[in-house]
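User: Predict the full complex structure for these chains.
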Amino acid sequence: MNSSQQNQQIVLAEHPSGVPTLDTFNIEDIAMPTMQADDEVDKVIIKSLYVSVDPGMRGFMDKGHDDAAGNKFQLNQPITSRSVAQVIDSQDAKFKAGDIVHGRFAWQRYQSVSSKDIEKVDATLAPISTAVSMLGVPGLAAYFGLLEVGDIEAGETVVVSGAAGSVGSIASQIAKIKGCKVIGIAGSDQKIAYLKNELGVDKAINYKTTDDMAAAIQEACPQGVDVFFDNVGGETFDAVLVNLNRHGRIAVCGQIAEYNQEQPPIGPRPMHTLIKKSARMQGFVVFDYSEDFAEAKKQIAQWYNDGKIRYKEHLIEGFDQLPAAFIGLFSGENIGKLMVKVAEAD
Amino acid sequence: MNSSQQNQQIVLAEHPSGVPTLDTFNIEDIAMPTMQADDEVDKVIIKSLYVSVDPGMRGFMDKGHDDAAGNKFQLNQPITSRSVAQVIDSQDAKFKAGDIVHGRFAWQRYQSVSSKDIEKVDATLAPISTAVSMLGVPGLAAYFGLLEVGDIEAGETVVVSGAAGSVGSIASQIAKIKGCKVIGIAGSDQKIAYLKNELGVDKAINYKTTDDMAAAIQEACPQGVDVFFDNVGGETFDAVLVNLNRHGRIAVCGQIAEYNQEQPPIGPRPMHTLIKKSARMQGFVVFDYSEDFAEAKKQIAQWYNDGKIRYKEHLIEGFDQLPAAFIGLFSGENIGKLMVKVAEAD
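Assistant: Here is the predicted structure of the two-chain assembly.
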C-alpha cells in the first residue's frame, strides 16, 4: 500500500429535499485503513477503482424507518454503492494483493472490508468495470426483468423506458436477441440516435419532444404492447399502459421520475386497466434471482463477446466527482452506465 | 309455452353519468319469441329464472369504443347478464323442454338464443341458482383469483376486500380451507358479523367506521399481508399496499370503488412499492381460466356439500326489479350474491 496517499471519504451531510445538491455530501480526509485482528471475520484492504452511481440510491438518502434491509445512509457516515476495487492486503487466503473484486463498498479511496462481502471479478469475461455495469446490477436487472418478470417471447412487442440508460440499453438488446420488436423511449435526440444506430431498436421515441406519448406508442406498436420494461414511471407509464395488450406484462424495474419527489406521486390508478387486460405488473430487484447470477453473467458476457450486445459506459474521472456524477443522473444526460473512475488498477 | 304471458325486456335508455338511476333503464312489452328456421344455428327458446346483477356491468353502460369483446350495451337494446333459465322449446336435440341452462342472456322474460350460447346446469351439484353465483362467475373468480393469481399457501396472511360480497365471501372461505389467516374488509356491522360468525374469518374490519385503515390492517396482520384479493380498489387498496410483504401478490378482481367515476380515478402510484417489495399485482377475468371451469365447479360444489363453504344469495323477486337491484349494488347493502328471481322453474 502506498501510504503517502491521503485517504478520503464522502459522507451524507444532510438528507436532501428533492434533487440532491453538492451540499448533500461532504468530502473528508480520513486515515488509511489498517489491518486489525478480528476473531469473527477475515479482513481485506481494498482500493476503489470504479464506483457506480445509481438512481435507486436516492431513496436511501431520505430519513425514515422503512429500512428492514439496512440500506439507508446515515448522516455523517459514508455513502455506499456497488464498486470495483483492487485488493491491497488480505487476511483471507482466497484473496491476494492485486486481485480485482467487487461489492457494495463505502465511498472511500481505501477501506477495510470483510472478505465475506467481496467477490472476485472474472477479468476474462469482459473489462473489469463491467462488474458493476453490464455484468453487475444493471445488466442483471435487464436480464431477469425481461426473461423472468416480463417473460418475453419471440415476436412480441416490447417497450423499454429509459432505454438509453444502464439497464434500458441492455434490456433493449436482450429483447432484440430474443426476437422481439423493441421500442425504446428516451429523452434526447442523441439518445434516440444511439438507440437506433448502435442498439438497433425498431423504433425510438423522444418523450421530451412528443406531445401525445400514448398516440406515439400506439403508432409505433400497431400490434399493441406485450411487455413493458419500465425504468421511469410517471406519465410514461400511463402512456404505455393504455397500449398494453391482453395478458400484457409490466416489469417494474425503476421509477426515476419519482425518486426525488417529496410525496408519493399520484397518478391514474392502473387497477381497472389491469383487470380489463388480465395484465400483470410486477416489481423486482435483481437479488431475487441471485442464485442464477453466475449463469446470467456468463450469458451476457457471451452475447457481448459475440458482438450481440454493445455496452457504453459514461465514465467520469476522479473520486471528488462522485457527488456531481450522482446528481447528474437526474438530469438525464448520461447514455449508458454512469460511473466514476477513482483510480487505475496497479 | 304459455302464450298468454306478456313478454318484456329491459333496455339501456341512456348512458348513465356516475351511479345509474331508474332513468338509465326502460322496461318494454315485446312479442313472445318464435322458433324461426335458421340454417346456421339451432335455436332454443328459454324462460329467465334467475338473473345476476354484477358491478362489472357498469362499465358496459358507458359510451365508448374500447370494446373488442363486444360487451358494451347499446342504447335501446336489452341489457345482458349471466342468468339461469329454463328451456321451453329447442331445435337442438341436446336440449329439451324443462332443462335448466345458464349463459349470458338478455334481460327478457322469454327469448330465443343459439344453442351454442347455453350450457346445461347440473342440478345435482347445488341449487340451480348457484350456476350464476357460487358455481358461476363470482365463485370461479374467487377460486382462480386466489389459487392461480394469488397463489396462496398455507400459513400465509390473506386480506379480502368486499369480503361479504358474492366473490369475497367465497374467496374468504377458500383461503380458510387452504390454511391461510384471513382478514375480511367490509362496510357494515351486519357484514362484519356475517364474516366473523358465518364465514369464520380471523378478523373483520369495517372500513366505514375505521379512521386509519392502514393502521387497522397492520394491527390485524402482525406478520404483514402476503396476498390481497381486491374487489374494491381506491383507498382500501392503498391501505393494504403499505402492509404488503416482500413477494406479496395482489389479485385485482374488481374495483367497485371506481366503476361509477366519470374520470379514471387518481391515487398514489403503486410502482415504487412494488419494486421495494418485489411484489406482483395482477388483473384477471375468470374466462382466462375457462379450460379449468369444470374442475373448479366440482371442487367448489364438493366444499359446499361438505359444509366447508357457506353461500348466501340476496334474492330480489320480480323482473321489473332488475334496474333497482343493479343500482343497489353500489350502495353496498347486499350480503352475498345479489340476484333477481324472475320466475319459478316449471
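The longest helix of chain B spans residues 137-149.
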